[in-house]
Amino acid sequence: MYLGIDTSNYTTSLALFDGENVFQQKKLLTVKSGERGLRQSDAVFQHTLNMYELSERLMLGNQKIDAVGVSTRPRIVDGSYMPCFLVGKSHAKCISVFADAKLYNTSHQIGHILAALYSANKLQLVGQQFIAFHVSGGTTEALLVTPHKDELIRASVISESLDLKAGQAIDRAGVMMGLEFPCGKELDALSQQSDREFKVNPSIIGSNCSLSGIENKAKAMFDKGESKEDISKFVLCSVLSAVDKMTQMIINSYGELPIVYAGGVMSNTLIKSNIMKQYSNAYFAAPEFSCDNACGTAIYAYLKDQYE
Fold first, then answer.
1. Higher local confidence (pLDDT), 24 or 33
2. Which DSSP letter does residue 294 get?
3. Do 246 and 157 form a contact (C-beta atoms < 8 A)?
4. How far is Cα 16 from Cα 183, in angstroms, rounded to an integer?
5. For strand 282-284 and strand 259-262, is the pairing parallel, antiparallel, or unpaired?
6. Which of 5, 108, 131, 296 could bridge across to 115 with cysteines, CB 3.0–4.6 Å?
7. Which residues are 282's β-sheet partners?
8. Is-contact 217 202, C-beta < 8 A?
9. C-alpha torsion sign, points 297, 302, 303, 308
10. Could you tell me if 44 and 89 are in contact, meaning their C-beta atoms sit under 8 angstroms apart?
11. Burial of 256 per CB tally in 10 Å (0-12, 13-18, 19+)
12. Which among 197, 164, 176 has a CA at the least distance from the CA of 265?
């Protein structure tokens, strides 16, 4: 059995992988009403409290752990660091020692990609080149993913947002309208009640995009008294237009490689349905494997153990 741990900025996650099936437990961190995020010290405190509760639910004491996979930083690049990941790293080290299990460190981003591949039944792509989108509150990136001897896969940024991230745009609009943070799920539901059609021209700079205009336009709509349903749909259509344009540019540059869409924003109904209609080589994860989770880190431990 392979254990995965992920302590991201807003979710504590544990998962077990037996080589075929994933069993997971996770818990959203609490953000005060009206606020748009957490201080790292508060995230660390909540993760510490959550680890025992989730471990008990997953019944780790009754499992033989062969290896532990843990996300220790947001991405595998110099300077990528957040204190919240230290909670998972510390627990992973302790469990590996007491369980006499191997320990494999990876990044939150690699975990997202592997979870999406598993959910889409495309884990075989680990052995070849493909494109991965990682779109969340902290990241809006398109990545060229290639096999790597030490890291299993290496993800290199080929297109990204130069300012606001997609999840930030969604959450800022949602909090402005009085929704609970994180706002993606509520925004998704509200958008489906709008009959408006929005044709949004994305702001593209070279191979990258700019998303800061989404927040400004959403605020202008809100100040004019436009409905939450219409504002929600506008925000999501704006994110869709940027992701769509980035996808088109990547296909033009890299050809018809498989494209995997990961991260919490990619669980959105409007974005997922439109991208899948347009691109036959597009693959999405189920929502539970798209939002923050530890499934990818458990799968990472399994795959690393198999390849060594």
1. 24
2. S
3. no
4. 28
5. parallel
6. 296
7. 259
8. no
9. positive
10. no
11. exposed
12. 164
What DSSP state is assigned to residue 161?
Answer: B
State yes or no: pLDDT of 308 exceeds 90.
no
Q: pLDDT per residue over 163-210, tens digit each?
A: 999 999 999 999 999 999 999 999 999 999 999 999 999 999 999 999
Of 78, 83, 85, 90, the residue nearest 111 (C-alpha): 85
Strands 2-7 and 11-17: antiparallel
How do residues 62-94 score in pLDDT, each as one tens digit? 779 999 999 999 999 999 999 999 999 999 999
Report helix, strand or coil for 116.
helix
Residue 105 main-chain phi, psi, to 5 deg: -95, 140
Give phi and psi for 284, each to the nearest 5: -120, 155
Distant-in-sequence, close-in-space partners of 89: CB < 8 Å, separation ≥ 6: 70, 72, 105
How does residue 307 score in pLDDT terms, banded at 50, 70 and 90?
Answer: confident
Cα separation, 138 vs 133, whole angstroms:
13
Going from the C-alpha of 152 to that of each of 1, 13, 149, 164, the distances in angstroms are: 19, 22, 6, 30
